[in-house]
């Protein structure tokens, strides 16, 4: 994990491999952002002109490297685009700062230390820069750089193995002795460490991450951070009647698990339950996915990873709220033991479900977990899942959908997501779509109308939420796993989508503002 410090040094005197400054897109060319004053002074006030000569415009995501002027201790200056100049000089959007810091951090991989002289005049700005730089520094290298046993013993790798992330971020322009700044940086560090742990889990190959090993990771983290962890194995699931989890997991040699993580605070007045879909690999089961759709299905546990990270973050931050996480873990595989289309499962709630498509498995494991979470009567439940391709068709690859049984709660979750920089959109739960899940054999089927499939899945889940409990469903199928080139602070692979939203929701709940 990249180190983060609030530096007491100025930009001119900081000894580092590079200095990062912000550049906005002005009407007549690039405009230097606050924080760059000392660097500009070293260039005799001509840094913007030099950048313009090099073709820089200040557009978002743009990055320009140039040799530092003689008055600076760092040898390189990195100018990163912030997008259009804001109406007020110091009113840079927090998400623009996060993305700019992430872009610079990615470009500086392999470096030991970089000073970030981006706008940090407020606690919020400093936190955004810290989050972006730490998120952008992420790299998953656990399976790279192995020893070549066929090479001569004295041979060395030509490229030296995978390039390591930026080792240290020095945040400039903040107030190192100010308690609010210190708290903001400590929060950013804890939050991003857990987001990156979620990313690691998502990126881990399914031969190493399966329900039992995921549960072991959760157990170890719980011991480290004072979170109670309970793991229900196959025997316990059979005894408890968890037909959804058992039905999905019965085709695999790796049995399912239901993991409960419980963080409690002695002064908490509210309880928030988080439920995560944890399909560690999704082949589709007997309803096998077509060729080209299996390769990234290790990411189908991204919801559980997000819930796990959020609970541990809440514990690390000591939030005055009780947060319970439920990880519904299973591997969906085809075999002679697998659930067949046409089978009927008796869920933990007692309802029976006819399985029309074994690739609609996420809703089955979530249903059992939602019912179990409801038994504890929390003030609200939020589930997170890479649930439907239909949601990707509706909202694209970067935006998750939000459904809920309470309009005010849905609005609150949406506002929180936008506040922390996670693109989302509120979606309806049309009652007329429920009829499509009627079954002549069971209480309901796990499939309904094809059109509006993401909403149908939400309606299915709603059936398993306890009476009178506010509930929201986040379908993160689009943003959970990024297959394209990295951008901003978003890496290729697992992203940790929804963790920031869940943590801020827990903070709001702790403050008595559940929504």
Task: Summarize the structure in short.
With 515 residues, the protein is α/β, with parallel strands linked by helices. The protein has 14 helices and 20 strands. It folds into 2 domains: 1-144 and 160-172, Leucine Aminopeptidase, subunit E, domain 1, CATH 3.40.220; 188-509, 3-Layer(aba) Sandwich (Aminopeptidase), CATH 3.40.630.
- The gyration radius over C-alpha positions equals 24 Å
Count of helical segments? 14
Overall, the morphology is: elongated
Task: Round the mean pLDDT to the nearest integer and report it.
Answer: 95
Query: CATH class of the largest domain, please?
Result: Alpha Beta
How does CATH name the architecture of the largest domain? 3-Layer(aba) Sandwich
Number of strands: 20
User: What structural class do helix, strand and pairing data support?
Assistant: alpha/beta
- What helical percentage do the residues reach? 25-40%
Q: In CATH, what is the homologous superfamily of the largest domain?
A: Zn peptidases
N-to-C CA distance: 34 Å
Largest sheet: 8 strands, mixed
Summed up, the domain count is 2
Uncertain segments: none
Q: What's the arrangement of strands in the largest beta sheet?
A: 8-9-11-10-14-18-15-16
Beta content comes to 15-25%
Q: Please name the CATH topology of the largest domain.
A: Aminopeptidase
């Amino acid at each position: 994990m990249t180190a983060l410090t609030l530096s007491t040094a100025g930009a001119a005197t900081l000894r580092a491999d590079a200095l990062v400054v912000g550049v906005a897109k002005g009407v007549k060319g690039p405009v230097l952002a606050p924080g760059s004053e000392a660097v500009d002074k070293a260039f005799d006030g001509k840094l913007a002109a030099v950048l313009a000569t090099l073709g820089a415009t200040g557009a978002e995501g743009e990055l320009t490297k140039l040799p530092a002027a003689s008055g600076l201790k760092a040898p390189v200056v990195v100018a990163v685009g912030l997008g259009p100049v804001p109406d007020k000089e110091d009113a840079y959007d927090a998400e623009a700062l996060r993305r700019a810091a992430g872009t610079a951090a990615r470009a500086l991989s392999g470096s030991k230390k970089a000073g970030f002289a981006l706008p940090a005049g407020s606690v919020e700005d400093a936190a955004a820069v810290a989050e972006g730089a730490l998120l952008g520094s992420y790299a998953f290298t656990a399976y790279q750089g192995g020893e070549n046993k066929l090479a001569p013993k004295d041979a060395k790798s030509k490229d030296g193995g995978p390039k390591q992330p930026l080792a240290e971020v020095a945040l400039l322009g903040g107030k190192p002795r100010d308690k609010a700044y210190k708290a903001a940086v400590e929060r950013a560090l804890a939050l991003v460490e857990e987001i990156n742990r979620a990313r690691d889990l998502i990126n881990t190959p399914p031969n190493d991450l399966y329900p039992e090993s995921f549960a072991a990771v959760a157990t170890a983290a719980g011991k480290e951070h004072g979170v109670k962890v309970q793991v229900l194995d196959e025997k316990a699931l059979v005894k408890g009647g968890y037909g959804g989890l058992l039905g999905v997991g019965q085709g695999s040699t790796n049995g399912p698990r239901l993991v409960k993580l419980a963080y409690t605070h002695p002064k908490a007045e509210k309880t928030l339950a988080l439920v995560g879909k944890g399909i560690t690999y999704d082949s589709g089961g007997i309803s096998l996915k077509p060729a080209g759709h299996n390769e990234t299905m290790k990411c189908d546990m991204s919801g559980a990873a997000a819930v796990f990270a959020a609970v541990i973050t809440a514990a690390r931050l000591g939030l005055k709220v009780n947060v319970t996480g439920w990880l519904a873990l299973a591997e969906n595989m085809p075999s002679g033991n697998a659930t067949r289309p046409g089978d009927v499962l008796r869920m933990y709630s007692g309802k029976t479900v006819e399985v029309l498509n074994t690739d609609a498995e996420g809703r089955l494991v979530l249903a059992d977990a939602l019912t179990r979470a409801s038994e504890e009567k929390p003030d609200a439940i939020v589930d997170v899942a890479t649930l439907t391709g239909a949601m990707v068709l509706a909202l694209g690859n970067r935006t998750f959908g939000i459904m809920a049984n309470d309009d005010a709660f849905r609005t609150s979750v949406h506002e929180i997501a936008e506040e922390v920089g996670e693109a989302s959109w509120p979606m309806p739960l049309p009652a007329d779509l429920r009829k499509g899940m009627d079954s002549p054999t069971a209480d309901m089927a796990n499939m309904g109308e094809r059109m509006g499939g993401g909403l149908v899945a939400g309606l299915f889940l709603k059936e398993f939420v306890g009476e009178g409990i506010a509930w929201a469903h986040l379908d993160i199928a689009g943003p959970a796993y990024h297959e394209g080139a990295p951008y901003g602070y978003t890496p290729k692979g697992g992203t940790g989508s929804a963790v920031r939203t869940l943590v801020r929701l827990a903070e709001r709940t702790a403050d008595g503002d559940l929504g």
